[in-house]
Specification:
The complex is a heterodimer of chains A (471) and B (502).
Chain A: E1 13-16, H1 19-27, E2 32-35, H2 45-72, E3 75-82, H3 83-86, E4 94-97, H4 109-121, H5 128-136, E5 141-144, E6 163-169, E7 175-179, H6 195-219, E8 222-223, H7 224-233, H8 243-259, H9 264-275, H10 282-294, E9 305-311, E10 314-319, E11 327-330, E12 335-338, E13 351-352, H11 356-359, H12 381-392, E14 395-404, E15 410-416, H13 418-423, E16 429-435, E17 443-450, H14 454-470
Parallel strand pairs in A: 1-2, 4-5
Antiparallel strand pairs in A: 3-6, 3-8, 6-7, 9-10, 9-13, 10-11, 12-17, 14-15, 16-17
Helix pairs in contact in A: 2-14, 4-5, 4-6, 6-8, 6-9, 7-8, 8-9
Chain B: E1 2-8, H1 15-26, E2 31-38, H2 41-49, E3 65-71, H3 74-88, H4 105-111, E4 117-120, H5 124-136, E5 140-143, H6 150-163, E6 167-168, E7 174-177, E8 180-183, E9 190-197, H7 200-212, E10 217-222, H8 235-246, E11 252-256, H9 262-273, E12 279-282, E13 295-297, H10 301-313, E14 336-341, H11 344-358, E15 363-364, E16 384-387, H12 391-394, H13 405-416, E17 420-428, H14 437-446, E18 453-459, H15 468-477, E19 481-483, H16 486-499
Parallel strand pairs in B: 4-5, 5-6, 9-10, 9-11, 11-12, 12-13, 14-16, 14-17, 15-16, 17-18, 18-19
Antiparallel strand pairs in B: 1-3, 2-3, 7-8
Helix pairs in contact in B: 1-3, 5-6, 7-10, 8-9, 11-16, 13-14, 14-15
Classes of the chains: A alpha+beta (471), B alpha/beta (502).
Chain lengths: 471, 502
């Protein structure tokens, strides 16, 4: 203690509370920043005092470590394989799904539809009715993608025969997986299972997979970190907009596709398919975030979220400091723009592992980089800037590799800190597609959705418990 | 029902923009469904699937926008079509440059480069947590909020002391730091008197007294009223005293505190004993003080200001000539003072002065002895000194320095009693306070029984936003006896009732 350190010069004041005090200072030409203050979320007093006591020490140290790991992570695409041979723990009766754990009886329409589709695709059933019976029989097991190093958009269904991308976090060596993106319209991930859906999946096995697989093998690996960084500068946030990312990917692949070409029709069909699917890159941006965040798991006392994921029924969160525990709450229905003929009435609650992009500092957290889709957040470019800026309030740090041109190349908000979520009473926002609530229909809109508060409140209490035990 | 389609060539709009336009069209009266969409093959399939691919739309090409409207009748469809064109060609609104306010102290620190102090006035329940965050961010804190527990206050002050930061408050209403008046503070010139005070209006009164004598201040720290209690240990009083003892701009130190606990007093005396600068002390109580060189103990806030200025200049304390109000003729039966204060310390000082003259305290809602406690704060009896800034009157209401409503009502009520001789008031100017108190008071004062004498103390400086001079003049014109020194206002009130032969 060296006594009070008060330096002469013009005072600069932060005003929390009565705005009149701030106005008085402004009239004196004193620089003032008014805080738009809200009371924190309601949590148990004991938990809050434990967290407050340890926030500047144990928690901050742990979070700094988590952020360093996340910032150092480097996602690269290293190859492809079939889920059964590639994803750890995969077996023929296992179906992986998006979000936190869920049983067949609790699954929402689109997820059930996707399971039915997967069983048809796996030739485990001949009709939808048969598939449904098998799905409910207990023979088929369901586990979250996230518990197998994988992620899946929307229903996120991965079954044993599906080809998957294999990504590696080059810095830490851990792997992640995701299927190939099927495009828009009637697709499995939105719960559609009509013959055209199954046929497309079979084409993806027979043509898309081998063609891409050869090209990737020829290249050795593709640096996804660099592609994502460039895509952000080209108007993507790599969740709801992947046009630049997909284009950049094709540029990288094109020479290798030609060099490894076996049938010109196949290669042309592959290029056509990717060209017709602006979201192709999503199934790479997601596992890219996944392998980076997985490396930051299990740091005791860290309040940084490593997973946000939804299964269409529940929204789940996992923290670095609370191991493999899921904290869940009911998923909300997105506030979206709907395709012609559909309304909010048709919408399923929020679904998919794609919130891994927001968890990794992208998606809605980087929406200021994607002016083309700002209509989702109110319509003006300044709305998008405000969205991203508000997310800094709940993040521990900023990305050192992904920047937003419109914010003077500031790094994207990174490392959702559950303590800040509670204290600032501000939940993460997520860009999302909207699935029809009934199986088999498909996508009906797109927009943004707020995470529910409940999982964060539960996670906060659980983190406080680890501090209690640690004392 | 009628369906219409229109193809728009040579225009490209993002699909999201088109979805927004579609949404707006669907909301029009008489429109059953509507869509504006790029006519790609995939999109036309979607239109077909939802029965929107009418004949005219089928020929649209990939790069064209197609608008399809289903409406109740032809005019409705036509007006929707017009609306669609209007929306498609609408000019872009100017981007608002306004950035949203930051939602947290952490974010505000980033936005305000070089921020050094955080002023907090949120509800007490949340205030300590915010103060804690501000200290963690390395900010000095002025905590205006009250209802913060002693344990929280102690924790915050210990943390602040460890970090070399100010932790002023809780319940700190006044401070002037580096010349900036914070919350309820007066505008002061820069000068060489450094003040630290555990009393808000006490600090304001001394500052005003210094300004009236043409001097200025280096710093005016507030600590919150509990700092001098054993539970807090005088942490901020000591920290600020240490600072002022070292500070090159400070030549004279003023210490004000509503009587600290004995242990804390001892600590403070010891510190003052080490000071190489003169220290002027006022503990708002007549008491024996240890003999310390260069230390002077004062019995009133005015004296505190006068002595501080005198010590600084090396001459005698200055007390401006009286305003020279002739004593009014006593009126039979009118013998009591009813004092209605907005400043707690001023009320307290007035009660001390009363006791000096009368040997006992008047009735009050803030009496420290039960004997003098007012039975019902809403019904005055005898000589009665009421602090209307106390919780009795402020729960669910703004402070009387901001909102005069309740005090005006009380003034009128007191004036009805035939045994009341004097109504004694304080008017506190400065930032935070009501912007024109005279405007509130004058109509009420003018309406009072002429037998009642109104004595009014106006606390403020010439540079305050309310303009001291104008406030004084307006109140005088309304018939009040106005003083810019509290001590003299109270003396006037006492003189008036005493000459009546009480």
């Amino acid at each position: 203690m060296d006594g009070l350190k008060l330096y002469k010069g013009k005072l600069k004041v932060i005003n929390v509370g009565l705005e009149a005090f701030g106005h008085d200072l402004e009239s004196l030409a004193v620089p003032v920043m008014q805080v738009d203050w809200k009371p924190p979320m309601e949590v148990e007093t004991e938990a809050m005092s434990l967290i407050t006591k340890n926030y500047e020490s144990k928690i901050r140290e742990a979070n700094a470590q988590a952020l360093e790991i996340i910032n150092q992570g480097k996602p690269v695409l290293i190859g492809m394989g079939v889920a059964l041979d590639t994803i750890p723990g995969m077996h023929k009766d296992l179906i992986l799904h998006a979000g936190p754990p869920i049983t067949w009886d609790k699954m929402c329409g689109p997820m059930r539809g996707a399971v039915i589709g997967a069983l048809l695709y796996e030739n485990r059933a001949k009709t939808a009715e048969e598939a449904e019976k098998l799905a409910a029989s207990g023979e088929i097991k369901y586990e979250p993608c996230h518990e197998h190093g994988a992620v899946g958009p929307m229903a996120g269904i991965i079954s044993a025969s599906m080809p998957v991308f294999i990504l590696k976090n080059e810095t830490f060596g851990n792997l992640s997986y995701a299927t190939q993106n099927e495009g828009l319209g009637k697709v499995l991930r939105y719960g559609a299972f009509s013959p055209e859906v199954i046929n497309r999946l079979r084409w993806m096995d027979a043509v898309l997979y081998p063609v891409l697989s050869r090209a990737i093998a020829h290249l050795g690996q593709i640096d996804l970190q660099s592609l994502i960084a460039q895509a952000l500068h080209m108007g993507d946030e790599v969740h709801n907009r992947n046009r630049a990312g997909t284009s950049l990917l094709i540029r990288q692949l094109a020479p290798a596709l030609l060099k490894t070409m076996e049938k010109v029709e196949d290669t042309a069909a592959v290029l056509d398919f990717i060209n017709g699917n602006d979201h192709f890159f999503l199934n790479l941006s997601m596992p890219a975030c996944k392998c980076v965040l997985d490396a930051a798991r299990n740091i005791p006392y860290s309040s940084v979220a490593v997973v946000m994921a939804r299964n269409g029924t529940d929204f789940g969160v996992q923290l670095s400091g609370t191991g493999n525990k899921w904290f869940t709450g009911a998923a909300l229905v997105p506030d979206a723009l709907y395709f012609p003929g559909y309304t909010k009435e048709d919408a399923n609650p929020d679904i998919g592992d794609s919130a891994i992009t927001e968890t990794g500092g992208l998606g809605a957290f980087a929406i200021a980089a994607a002016p083309a889709i700002v209509q989702f957040v109110g319509g003006s470019a300044s709305d998008a800037l405000s969205y991203t800026e508000s997310m800094y309030e709940i993040c521990y740090g900023e990305s050192v590799k992904y920047q937003i041109p419109a914010l003077d190349f500031r790094g994207t908000p990174l490392g959702i800190d559950v303590v800040k979520v509670i204290e600032n009473n501000l939940v993460p926002v997520i860009d999302t597609g909207v699935a029809h609530k009934n199986p088999g229909v498909g996508q009906v809109g797109a927009g943004v959705v707020k995470a529910p508060a409940e999982p964060f409140i539960k996670a906060y209490h659980a983190l406080a418990d680890t501090l209690k035990q640690g004392d | 029902m009628i369906a219409k389609a229109k193809i728009i060539k040579g225009m490209y709009l993002d699909s999201v923009k088109l979805m927004l336009i579609s949404k707006e069209l669907r909301g029009l009266q008489g429109v059953e469904d509507a869509v504006a969409i790029m006519a790609t093959k995939e999109n036309k399939d979607i239109l077909a699937a939802t029965g929107m691919l009418v004949e005219e739309a089928k020929t649209a090409k990939d790069s064209e926008i197609v608008v399809v409207v289903k409406a109740q009748d032809e005019p409705k469809a036509e007006s929707a079509m017009q609306k669609a064109e209007e929306l498609l060609t609408a000019p872009v609104k100017k981007r608002s440059g306004d950035k949203a306010h930051p939602g947290s102290i952490q974010a505000a620190v980033r936005d305000l480069d070089g921020a050094d102090i955080c002023l907090i006035s949120v509800a007490g329940k949340y205030a300590a947590a915010e103060a804690n965050k501000a200290l963690d961010m390395g900010l000095h804190v002025m905590l205006f909020s009250d209802n913060v527990s002693v344990a929280e206050e102690l924790y915050l002050k210990q943390k602040a002391v460890d970090k070399g930061l100010l932790m002023m408050g809780p319940d700190c209403g006044t401070a002037i730091i580096n010349g900036v008046p914070l919350a309820f503070s007066n505008v002061m010139q820069a000068g060489h008197i450094g003040l630290v005070s555990a009393s808000g209006t006490g600090l304001q009164e001394v500052c005003a007294g210094i300004a009236h004598r043409g001097e200025g201040i280096s710093q005016a720290f507030g600590t919150g009223g509990r700092d001098g209690k054993n539970a807090i240990g005088g942490l901020m009083l000591c920290s600020c005293l240490d600072f002022l003892m070292q500070d090159a701009d400070t030549k004279v130190i003023v210490l004000i505190a509503k009587t600290p606990d004995a242990e804390i007093q001892a600590k403070l005396w010891e510190k003052i004993g080490q000071s190489s600068k003169p220290v002027v002390v006022n503990f708002l109580k007549d008491m024996e003080v240890p003999p310390i060189a260069d230390m002077q103990y004062c019995n009133s806030l005015e004296e505190t200001a006068a002595i501080a200025c005198a010590v600084l200049r090396g001459d005698k304390p200055m007390y401006p000539e009286g305003e020279g109000y002739p004593l009014p003729k006593p009126i039979a039966g009118r013998k009591y003072i009813r004092a209605l204060y907005s400043g707690g310390t001023l009320c307290y000082e007035a009660m001390q002065m009363y006791k000096r003259r009368r040997g006992h305290y008047p009735k009050s809602n803030i009496a420290s002895e039960t004997e003098f406690m007012l039975k019902d704060v809403w019904h005055s009896e005898g000589d009665c000194f009421i602090d209307m800034g106390a919780d009795d009157f402020t729960v669910g209401r703004p402070h009387p320095m901001i909102d005069f409503t309740l005090r005006l009502k009380k003034i009128a009520e007191e004036a009805v009693h035939k045994d009341v001789a004097v109504i004694l008031l304080d008017v506190v100017l400065g930032y935070g306070s009501h912007i024109n108190p005279a405007k509130e008071l004058v109509p009420v004062l003018q309406g009072l029984d002429k037998e009642i004498v109104v004595v009014c103390h106006v606390l403020g400086t010439e540079d305050d936003p309310q303009h001291l001079h104008e406030q004084v003049k307006a109140l005088k014109d309304a018939g009040a006896r106005v003083f810019t020194s509290h001590r003299r206002a109270v003396a006037e009130a006492l003189d008036i009732v005493e000459q009546g032969g009480v």
